[in-house]
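FORM 12-B: Structure-to-Sequence Request
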């Protein structure tokens, strides 16, 4: 199965940076991209009460946006398709996840200097987190031209089971030169036993099966940075 990434697309620098980074990542993993453009994000459908004609009109006005994104997709290093929606709703996120089975949703980090854009991205992240979808946030200072080389896996004492989609990330962990770190955060005390159990939980999940043992690091929540 080909790995896919859904990246929130737009024409301003943060969104363009997220597309570039997702393209680099998908290229390294021999995957594909879905460029997703939305105008809003909400837990509730604003067109639910008889406004479908307005929604269709709004979608029609996005024809040019979709066409430009499609032209940009042709210049990427990986195969890419375009999806346009008026609103990211929980049901829309679920439908996209079922149809594309993405290993990750990718979006740019909210920029506090652009409140409207930041509010949209924050709302998108909240919907994705609530739905437990895998999420990659691209910071404004990402290293252009480089896929992740240091991957931190946050874990606690509890064992866990991976969803099938997580298997698509194993090639990323296995890229040459990748450093894997398991981090356990304790509250106010040094919890070495908890650190050891966190590493055991990660290893038992099969996420790092066949890979060198990850480095283990413990942090207290007051000094987690």
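FORM 12-B RESPONSE
SEQUENCE OUT:
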């Amino acid at each position: 199965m080909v790995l896919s990434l859904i990246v929130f697309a737009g024409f301003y620098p943060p969104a363009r940076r997220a597309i570039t980074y997702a393209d680099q990542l998908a290229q390294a993993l021999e995957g594909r991209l879905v460029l997703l453009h939305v105008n809003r994000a909400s837990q509730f459908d604003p067109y639910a009460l008889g406004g479908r004609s307005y929604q269709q009109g709004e979608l029609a006005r996005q024809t040019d946006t979709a066409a430009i994104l499609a032209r940009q997709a042709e210049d990427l290093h990986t195969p890419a398709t375009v999806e346009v929606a008026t609103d990211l709703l929980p049901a829309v996120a679920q439908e996209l996840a079922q149809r594309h089975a993405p290993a990750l949703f990718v979006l740019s980090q909210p920029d506090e200097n652009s409140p409207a854009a930041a509010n949209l991205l924050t709302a998108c992240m909240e919907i994705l987190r609530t739905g437990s979808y895998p999420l990659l946030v691209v910071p404004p200072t990402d290293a252009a031209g480089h896929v992740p080389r240091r991957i931190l896996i946050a874990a606690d004492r509890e064992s866990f089971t991976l969803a099938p989609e997580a298997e698509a990330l194993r090639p990323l962990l296995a890229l040459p030169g990748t450093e894997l770190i398991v981090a356990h955060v304790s509250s106010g005390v040094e919890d070495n036993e908890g650190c050891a159990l966190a590493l055991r939980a990660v290893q038992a999940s099969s996420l790092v099966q066949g890979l060198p043992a990850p480095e283990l690091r413990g942090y207290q929540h007051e000094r987690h940075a």
